[in-house]
Design goal:
heterodimer, A: Arc Repressor Mutant, subunit A, 3-stranded antiparallel sheet, 4 helices, B: 339 residues
Chain lengths: 114, 339
């Protein structure tokens, strides 16, 4: 039984993994710092561990999808991330792909339900 | 005592340190600052004045420092990656087996030559030599593979074009195939020779079994020692050649080219090391007949024979190398034409 649960958890994680990037990109048309992004995503129903999100932001920056800047005027220094030009293009392509995928999967899963 | 807030805030310092020390220096300061900001934000969420439990909860949520650091690093790190691992296992088995066999043979020969006074001490000696030699072999093979992983593989990724089914290698015809047993035997032999030449060269000699055993070394040990680097290169080349055969698995033009280059080097070294009379034991005949009753005439004859032996040995080896080059080209070419 617990085995069954473990398999399920792993499959959920796998399913989510690919979509996190899309969610993150979607929220970064305006500059945000890491923890604010965690909270926004959480409010909208996408729970992402900070320990996953922070390294992800760095990776996306390294790939050139995000730009970052340290903001030191506030009470404590924060690193703000925002989509780069390339990031905007990639985000559009990803949303299009996601739309198609959702349609396909809807068709497939509804078929099964019948 | 003022131990309240600083004490568990120290835990944050320790956490941040434990994450960042595993990261490349260039990124450390930046990640540290960001991570501290994150932890503060998470603590604020818990309440205006964080308690010890809050700190613990936040750090637990962030997870094991080594795991967080590896997420920051991104790619997985190997000493020897999955592509090389099978070859690594094969080679390490062969080399360790050859080393163990070599030590055992050398010990047995040594025991026959001069029976040790204390059996148990001899056995302990044998075992400790065996263990240290096998461990060394393991270390050397691992180091070589780690170097290949680091440098050679990166290069390969570089030149990697899109894979096409056309690139699939032909299944070698039975004739073109090289049985793995041949190169493995070659490697075992070369490793044993390498060890004998480096550790017990005095045992390479002529054995006389009259009242006990006397060994007359074939080589002049001092000269041999001064040339040991060249001799080692010779055997390493032989091992590399056999490894090529083992990995390729079939005769080909490429293999023939490799054999030609390696054998040319081996011919050069063989002539340079073994043709000059200095490396051969000049007192051999005198030592041999110390106990025997040979006539003066027989002695002169033997002396003459011994003086031409090096030429014969070098001549035969060079002949062998050349024949090997020719056959590898003939087989490689035949396979290229029919295959």
């Amino acid at each position: 039984m617990s085995d069954n649960n473990e398999i399920k958890t792993n499959l959920f994680l796998e399913l989510r993994r690919g979509t996190i990037t899309l969610c993150v990109l979607s929220q970064l048309t305006e500059p945000k710092y890491g923890y604010a992004l965690v909270e926004t995503l959480d409010e909208k129903g996408m729970r992402v561990e900070p320990g996953t999100l922070y390294p992800l932001l760095r990776r996306l920056e390294k790939q050139g999808l995000l730009k970052s800047e340290w903001e030191t005027t506030g009470s404590k220094p924060r690193k703000y991330y925002v989509l780069s030009e390339m990031g905007e293009q990639v985000y559009l392509a990803l949303t299009a792909e996601w739309g198609q995928m959702r349609e396909t999967i809807d068709t497939l899963t509804n078929e099964e339900a019948k | 005592m003022e131990k309240t807030s600083n004490d568990f805030m120290g835990m944050v310092d320790r956490y941040v340190y434990d994450v960042t020390r595993r990261l490349p220096k260039a990124q450390r300061a930046d990640i540290e600052q960001e991570l501290r900001g994150l932890i503060e934000d998470m603590l604020e969420q818990a309440g205006p004045t964080p308690r010890k439990e809050d700190v613990e909860a936040v750090l637990t949520e962030l997870g094991r420092p080594s795991e967080l650091a590896s997420k920051y690093r991104g790619k997985k790190r190997f000493l020897i990656g999955p592509e090389l691992f099978d070859t690594y296992l094969l080679v390490i088995k062969i080399v360790m087996g050859a080393v163990a066999l070599g030590i055992t043979i050398a010990t047995v020969v040594g025991v026959i030559a001069s029976p040790p006074p204390h059996f148990w001490i001899a056995l302990a000696d044998y075992l400790s030599t065996l263990v240290s030699a096998v461990v060394q072999a393991f270390a050397y093979v691992t180091i070589v593979f780690a170097i290949i992983e680091r440098f050679a593989k990166r290069k390969e990724n570089w030149k990697q074009d899109a894979w096409k089914p056309v690139d699939l290698p032909e299944i070698p015809k039975a004739k073109a195939r090289i049985k793995p047993s041949e190169p493995i035997a070659g490697i075992v032999f070369a490793v044993i020779a390498l060890m004998v030449f480096n550790t017990v060269p005095h045992l390479i000699g002529i054995y006389q079994f009259s009242d006990g055993v006397t060994i007359t070394p074939v080589f002049d040990l001092d000269v041999l020692r001064s040339m040991i680097v060249l001799i080692d290169i010779l055997f390493v080349l032989a091992i590399v050649k056999e490894a090529f055969r083992l990995v390729n698995g079939k005769h080909s033009i490429m293999l023939a080219t490799a054999v030609t280059i390696i054998n040319a080097a081996m011919i050069t070294i063989t002539i340079a090391v073994f043709l000059p009379p200095a490396i051969w034991n000049g007192d051999m005949i005198a030592m041999l007949q110390a106990g025997s009753d040979m006539t003066w005439a027989e002695r002169v004859d033997l002396q003459y024979i011994w003086s031409i032996v090096p030429k014969i040995i070098v001549g035969l080896s060079v002949f062998g190398y050349v024949v090997e080059i020719i056959t590898s080209w003939v087989r490689g070419a035949r396979n290229a034409i029919t295959g």
